[in-house]
User: Fold this.
Amino acid sequence: MEGLLLLLCALTFYYFAVLRIDYPKTTLLDLGPHPDATEYFAQAKALQRDSWPSIQIGYEKLPSRYPFGYPALMLPWLKILPEADAVLAPFRTSQTMGLSLLLAVFGFYAYLAMPLTGGVAVLLLATLPGFFTFCRSSLSEVSASLLIILAFMFAYLGIKEERRWKIYLSAVFLGLSLNIRIQSLFFAPLLLAMALFPMGGMSWRWFLHCAAIPVVFVLAASPMLILNTIQFHSPLTTGYDLWVPYFSRNHLLFRLGWIPTNAASLWRELILQPHGYYAANIFGTGTSFVPAFVVLVCIGLFFISFNYFVGCAFLAGFSSFAVTLSYLFGRDGRFYLPLLMLLIAIAVLPVTWAAQNTFAGKRLISAATVFILFAAACLGYPSRSGYKTDGINRLQAWDALHFATSPRRSIAFLAERNFARQISRQTGIVLSDIDPVYLNALLPRSFIAAPIDGKHNYKWSYTWRYDRPQASALVENGLRQSLPVYALFASQDDVAENQSRLPTAPGYEWRTLSSSQRNAAILKLTPIGSDQAAGALE
Assistant:
């Protein structure tokens, strides 16, 4: 009964902190400022339209820098949501994966006949700042974490119950997670669980199973490997090598030199000092974990009964932590989210012990101390909310329930909606500083979007180019085909500042068209001296 009550509390909190968010009243529908969410959404739309993951810039359909697993998970939501609300698909997917993870954790402990521990684990998970922050995001962290957690669960059950098929299922989940986030590869030592399985007197069978487990893992990851081979002629080459080749060619993605900087960033968050601006600041307060949770984990280490599986799990976790710490972008707490979730299995141990010893006289003080830490971890106190703020007296649970209470506007999304409404049932070309991948995913297929010039998120590629010459050629080609050419700016102020960057064509001029959206501006390339009304769209 206590476990079910804790589950109910966790689900109630999850509803108000994650599911109840009114995204149109936030800036999140712009899917920025980083290209992750934009490319995920664009790949999902491409899968829906063409059954092939890609991003589109102008007329070109190009590989994304990110795996297609998360976009594939969006497809059910793209079918459910009205076309006008399709941009909500990545958010609904993360919310669904987060809810599934909560239920999976409770179900796991209920299967082990430990419902109270399951309730404690679910409540700690639901109130983990990194968890609820990315459950309401348009990123793939929670989806990948769900598969990783399932892999650990089935590896544990396989060893505990001596069922090899559960270890194989663990390898499948871990392999599938690579199709969502490549960093899941760092948990591969978990596959050593098969080697820990009792031989049963037939060493050759044990050896065959040990040889088969990496094969199953690779087969589960094969969709990504096959796609990489088709697109880049190598299973180990990814979109990063196309769009940001500088880091991979100079071997800068993973270096021991990044460890001090990344460790210092994690330490600052632990001791409640200001740290950098990361993805968690976009979807929440910027906090991924609180000190009380870490202290609870440290206490839980004394309650662990060490065995072969614990050693295997520790090796997998340490491998992921060490490699992520040496990662170029390892300062961002979201890359440690699967580890934080796995640590909940340790944090619940002292809380369960305290619940069983509440009325034991000599252990009352210790139990009360653990409960205080548990309450502090669930409330997220003390903590820091916001970027470079002064106070450390924030409650993450309170801030989670009041996320986006001040209505804000998704400028790029509103500009696209206004433009799409005005050019309904037309064909043409639109140039914009709004991410062209974002626009092509949202606009009708009769329109194609491209950057104004070389100032865009895809300018770092060594092999793909788009700059002023390509923009001019695109415009000239459109005019030869008698296609209308437009320019879309997110705000009226951008027109005066950036209109000079627009490509020119002999005999044509850019004219401002009226817009019902006061903060968006639409220009059209029209013949000089044309008597077309400046305030009308064709």
About this structure: The first strand starts at residue 55 and ends at 57. The radius of gyration is 26 Å. The chain has a mean pLDDT of 91.
